[in-house]
Amino acid sequence: MCWNLRNVTIPNSVTSIGSSAFDGCTSLRNITIPNSVTIIGDDAFYNCQRLGGVTIPNSVTNIGTSAFAYCTSLTSITIPNSITTLPDNLFSVCTSLSSVIIPNSVTSIGSAFGGCTSLRNVVIPNSVTNIGYEAFASCTGLRSVTIPNSVTCIGEFVFYNCTSLTSITIPSSVTSIGNDAFSQCPSLTGVYFEGNAPSIGVYVFLGDNNVTVYYLLGTTGWSYFLSQVSILGALWNPLIQTGDGSLGVQTNQFGFNINWASGQTVVVEACTDLANPIWSPVGTNTLPGGSSYFSDPQWTNYPGRFYRIRSP
To answer: What is the CATH number assigned to the segment(s) 239-310?
Structure first.
């Protein structure tokens, strides 16, 4: 271990950074990895506590387990399009890591980000089919996660102890959720399912005392699912957003955002008298990505107008 090593420039003749090459170089601050490197081995930069930033070139096709684990000063990293798997413990306990870009080449995520307590938001690309054991466990700052329709399995302990996670949407492609996947997430209030009930492990929502499972009308399997997890369930209905700043006059038209499941269609109806309501459709919105903005160009023709939404 070279405890006093601070800066390293690797020449273009190097094609592989071997296992534990810089393991424990606790003073290492900067390193330049050339385009000649194709492999970064297991534990290559393990416990390089002062390493603040790394650019991984597109030439790298394989990164080993725990390659950047315990790099507690690492704040951001861009993973190249040449990588298909994020292996176990890749960035484990990188407590300063607040931003990460996962490319569309990645198909599988192992326990890569466990203990990344500064990670706030994660977008998982459409190429990923499997989120493995403890992938984001104890990411206590994680507030939002986007899971794409390509994912079929959410593994065991994936979001265990994500204490700041408040809601998550599960796409219809997910057919199984492993043991303790969302356990000890006390801030979790809503889990929104876009498809039928998946198979479920044990203790999936253990310690989540405020959570409700929301599901769409016409989907199946929820009676058994809810009996297994012993939490509240409710129909997931479209919702007019009143607190996001969209409700009101925008560019000379009255409107508002509508949130619901991605790809669903919502009919907006209006009336002028709630005492004797005659509701008439005034718009039909499809919600790509789960949200859509409705505007009413006729709003100035009425002294007052009321709105409601429904599925077709």
So the answer is: 2.60.40
Q: Report the candidate in 221, 160, 170 with the shortest Cα–Cα distance to residue 191.
A: 170
Q: Hey, where are the domains in the chain?
A: 107-236, 239-310
> Which bin fits 221, alpha (ψ -120 to 50), beta or left (φ > 0)?
left
Architecture of domain 107-236: Alpha-Beta Horseshoe (3.80)
| CB-based burial, 245-281: b 16+ in 10 Å, e otherwise | ebeeeeeeebbbbbbbbbebebbbbbbeeeeeeeeee
pLDDT in tens, 261-309: 988 999 999 999 999 999 999 999 888 888 899 998 888 888 888 999 9
Q: Is the dihedral of CA 210, 266, 310, 240 positive or negative?
A: positive
Q: How many residues does the chain have?
A: 312
Backbone angles phi, psi at 212, to 5 degrees: -125, 135
pLDDT in tens, 131-185: 989 999 999 999 988 899 999 999 999 999 999 999 999 999 999 999 999 999 9
